[in-house]
Amino acid sequence: MHPYDLPGEWFVLNAQSGHEKKVRTNILTRIKNLHLEDKVYDVVIPTDEVVEIRNGKKVNLEKKTFPGYVLVRMDLDDTTWYEIRNTPSIIGFVGSGKRPISLSRREIERILGSNEEVELKKESPKFKPDFEVGETVRVTTGPFADFNGIIEEINLDQSKVTVLVNIFGRETPVELGFTDIVKN
Asked: Backbone dihedral region of 30: left (phi > 0), alpha (psi from -120 to 50 degrees) or beta?
């Protein structure tokens, strides 16, 4: 089922940056203590799974898509609005005027993705290399192991880099995977 088709409407909360998890925990605790489970359904911190390469090793990380913001799915009335708004570490609801404005289906799809996109995100996390173009690196595997080179190009889609390696006195471009090199 699409996140938009679930009960309640989606709203965006502005949280103190770096306190998103604390805000989520505070809201969930407050909902339970005040018996509002039938009005506040879900609290989400939008994240993307990213794979970074650190010292030649893949590290899975969850990066916040919108730092400083938390999504809440709820039925908006005076009680829920007051209790959520007055939860510690929350700056306020995002919206114009006095009352918060719920997100449209299109906005929810863009932030949380459609069901198919959510499944694809789970299957293939994005790579975020720990190096950049122009940086000197050392090749760790293959026939060019222990050669130094300069990164000429980074291809995020294929998780590959083109490194200029000095072979027999000539700069030669060599295509390598992210895990085949380390920073010098």
From this structure: alpha
pTM above 0.85, yes or no: no
Nearest to 183 by CA among 150, 154, 160, 158: 150
Nearest to 77 by CA among 5, 28, 15, 9: 9
SS3 (DSSP) at 161: strand
In tens, the pLDDT along 54-109 reads: 777 788 888 888 899 999 999 999 999 999 999 999 999 988 667 888 998 888 88
For residue 95, the SS3 value is coil
Q: Which two tokens stand for residue 15?
A: 């949280």
Buried b (16+ CB within 10 A) or exposed e, 107-119: ebbebbbeeeeee
Q: List strands edge to edge, sheet with 40-44.
A: 40-44, 69-74, 9-15, 90-93
Specify the fold of 136-183: SH3 type barrels. (2.30.30)
Ordered by start, the domain boundaries in the chain are 3-127, 136-183
Indicate the class that CATH gives domain 3-127: alpha beta
According to the model, what pLDDT value does residue 38 have? 93
What is the C-alpha separation between 50 and 30, in angstroms, rounded? 31
- Per-residue b or e along 150-168, where b marks 16 or more CB atoms closer than 10 Å to that residue's CB: bbeebeeeebbbbbbbeee
